[in-house]
Design a protein that fits this description.
By secondary structure, the protein is mostly helical. It is built from 19 helices and 10 strands.
Length: 506
Amino acid sequence: MKRINKLSVIFTIAATVLAGGCSLEKFPDGTIGIENAFLTMDDADRLRDGMYIVFRANAAGSPVYSPELMTDLFHATSTFGNRGGAMYNWIFTSDDSDVDALWANSYSAIANVNFFIEGANSLDKSGMSEEDMETLTVWKGEAFFLRAWYHFRLMEKFCKTYPGNEDSFGVPYAKVYSPTSDQSKYLTRGTMRESVTAINQDLDSAAAYVSTKGSAGSIWITSDVVSALRARVALATGDYAGAISYAEPLLRTYPLATGEDTFRPIWTVDSGNECILQLDASYPDALPSSYSYNYTAYNSLTGIYSPDFVPEQWVIDLYRENPSDMRFSTWFLYETITMTGNAKYDLYLFNKFPGNPALREQGASNSNYIHKAKPFRIAEMYLILAEAYARNGQEVQANEYLTSLRQSRIPGYAAPASGFSGETLLQEIFEERIRELMGEGFYLNDIRRYGKAVERRAAQQSAAIYLPEVNEKFYMGVNEFRFVWPIPQAEIYANPNLAPEQNQGY
């Protein structure tokens, strides 16, 4: 992807005022107008690049890392220094930086998207070629996709789970670029039903406009990427037939890895055929800061590992149920780590994101743990199909997709002759989602959808683990209000319409 030029930089920066606490409808004086920024196809191209750059930043880094810390996948070590501590300890408030950043950055990106859509609609097309018209239509479809993606991500964090809560608060759905200082025109939350309807409408538009067929490792939003998001949304909203219809055709284009030689490169050098979308980056500065360092914290000069977070023992055991599971041999290290006071422990470390050598500074000897963001992978589609079929009462098909994924990841895997059924089948799918998607930001949403509690369990080495109190037990039941994040206080100050719509408990 090309480096963004001055015009799209102005565009991007203008929309990021939300990060400073401005309302999602209010922009500062001097914000570049559509009539000045969107005059030609070259302008459209540059602004499109801006949308992708922002998308790439939102599809990796903190938005993925922070929710994982809330779960029972990891223990904080005695040297973690409270990095991510508010999320890890479930003590975040409406002023928390991670909460505010996800909200503000999402609506900043949505403003960019709306700016693009309105600019594409108003662009003088009288002298445009047919090819340019078709291209602009595709790009507009990409923008509709992104608007749906951002709003859905907001719903996953700031709203209740959908089935059964359709009339609960949704998210403010921003469909227009409308800078204003008139607070009476600022958005309110509406219902979840209205939010989901709007998301699906945007995805309908994306599907109608994005004619580009997908291929493995695509760096652009394609029709397959649209289908993948539609499948994800359908599963989350209880539309199991829809999830099946969107996910199933994708399996024909994106084959699962057939052995470690084709599986390992997905995570080491960003190659292979499993990525439906892999956002492009050709230089390290093009990607957001990687938080994967916190899982290993390896210093190449000293040869010392000193991680902030290590997997819990039950997670290690989950992978080791099948000793030949390629995911365990590829994503985990067994190393001696150095803790506070130079104490040393032999532990398994999570190393799913070791860093692509091609994305390091020239001559750098130490990994920056940066990879190309992978928002959609075919493995997730297998898991969506397995769960959707199971919840739809079609257990034979559910077992087929679960088995197919396991056979790809576990050489020699043989499913039980009679398959799994009932709650056992759903639990097997839940556990497989952990094995496959760990570290990619899905698990907190999975816990919410399955109605499970968060309970931290035995550590690999208890002496290496951070415990505020001796023998502390950490448990968050399914009714804990912090499963739903608070609307940031900065946004409520800027948009008083949201004050009576704050989530329960904050």
